[in-house]
Amino acid sequence: MVTPSSSLLTLEQALATMLDAVAPVTVADTENVPLTEACGRISAESIVSPVNVPPFDNAAMDGYAVRLADLTPGALLPVAGRALAGVPFTGQWPAGSALRIMTGAPTPAGAEAVIMQEYAQVDEQGVRFSVAPAAGEHIRRVGDDIRQGDEVLPAGRLLQVAELPLLASLGIASVRVCRRLRVALFSTGDELRPIGAPLAAGEIHDTNRFAIRLMLTQLGCEVIDLGIIADDAAALREAFRQADSRADLLITSGGVSVGEADYTKTMLEELGQIHFWKLAMKPGKPFAFGRLGQAWFCGLPGNPVSAAITFYQLVQPLIARLGGRRDWRTPPRLRARALTPLGKTPGRLDFQRGRYRLDDAGELTVETTGPQGSHVFSSFACANCFIVLEQARGDVAAGEWVTIEPFNALLQG
Ligand code: AMP
Ligand code: MG
């Protein structure tokens, strides 16, 4: 698996190589967690319903429960009792009578339809109906929605707001999930200082470790933060060893571009099998992927925008695969009309940051968020999508159609 460093690899080729190389590592090691702590976790087994939903036949409308045989034209039916949600009718229901019933109340045995109260004329003697209902009308039958024993969620599903209340409604109080993926993280660079630390001449704050940490936390990973590692062979070797012994995956930032790579490269060749790629994408050209002794490894470029975009496009799907997700989908792409010109040199797939909206005429439009340099992190702050400009494309004039990729929850909740 040697990639000539001179040739550029497409994003698709890189991603396919990564996803082919790895298998889920968390699925054999599961834990049972209460539903209230399961948000963001991944189901480890198929979840089947222990009950029928609805659990009993019940009224879908406020009105009257009837037997169809009693509904001769103009018939006056005495009202023999009532059923409310949570307060079933428990008496005898004589033939030739109706029951007052409210939405969600159990329909009594023998009820063949519920007639909406809007079609009922009531007086002291009883009730008359102005419609003839079909059999079963406005009755929700037991198990209509979910039958006991049906699979409600497969294994490998990310559990979130759409899934967990469904389980709660079935009376399920805990769920078996994959253990969290353990991800080690460090930044390399003598110029880096922790967030909030005073800066000497030539120093900058370590934004990448913070950004990556935020994304890892959002993805439900357990983060092993190894801090800032100086550009020093012994310190780097020790950090790689540490990470390899404790994590499923190590992510580093910096030190993979030309000029610096040799250092890291020699060491990584000693410790594992790593491929340094030049990706045909912008930002994000230098990227490393491979395996240490037992942990997988991703080396992100140092520029903050490049680091964030390579994380989003390559590491995010890798984490989904390693972490046991089977429901990962590549973020969908849409077509939008560019409102602003976009500078682009042919040769690499370009991920510019943009803001899309549906205009008053119902057309999807997008505009740039400004300067797109790989050090300009502010271009993210007001963006809601990537503008994905194809490899061969050159400058885009205002009014041209472009492809956009709306941010998923990782960048925008
Ligand atoms: P490198 O990939 O190490 O050559 O770094 C490329 C550029 O990104 C340089 O300007 C670095 O100072 C900057 N950089 C590297 N790591 C970080 C980091 N963790 N946070 C912010 N900027 C960084
Ligand atoms: Mg560096």
Automatic annotation (TrEMBL):
Catalytic activity: adenylyl-molybdopterin + molybdate = Mo-molybdopterin + AMP + H(+)
Family matches, as CDD domains: MoeA
PROSITE patterns linked to this entry: MOCF_BIOSYNTHESIS_2
Start and end residues of each MoaB/Mog domain: 184-321
Pathway membership: Cofactor biosynthesis; molybdopterin biosynthesis
GO terms of molecular function: metal ion binding; molybdopterin molybdotransferase activity
SUPFAM superfamilies xref list: MoeA C-terminal domain-like, MoeA N-terminal region -like, Molybdenum cofactor biosynthesis proteins
Gene Ontology annotations for the cellular component aspect, listed alphabetically: cytosol
EC number: 2.10.1.1
Cofactor(s), by name: Mg(2+)
Pfam families listed in its UniProt record: MoCF_biosynth, MoeA_C, MoeA_N
UniProt cross-references to InterPro entries, sorted A to Z: MoaB/Mog-like_dom_sf, MoaB/Mog_dom, MoCF_biosynth_CS, MoeA-like, MoeA_C_domain_IV, MoeA_C_domain_IV_sf, MoeA_linker/N, MoeA_linker/N_sf
Alphabetical keyword list: Magnesium, Metal-binding, Molybdenum, Molybdenum cofactor biosynthesis, Transferase
Organism domain of life: Bacteria
Ranges in a coiled coil: none
GO BP field: Mo-molybdopterin cofactor biosynthetic process
Keyword Metal-binding: yes
Protein role: Catalyzes the insertion of molybdate into adenylated molybdopterin with the concomitant release of AMP.
Family according to the record: Belongs to the MoeA family.
Protein name per UniProt: Molybdopterin molybdenumtransferase
Organism of this sequence: Sodalis praecaptivus
Gene (name only): moeA
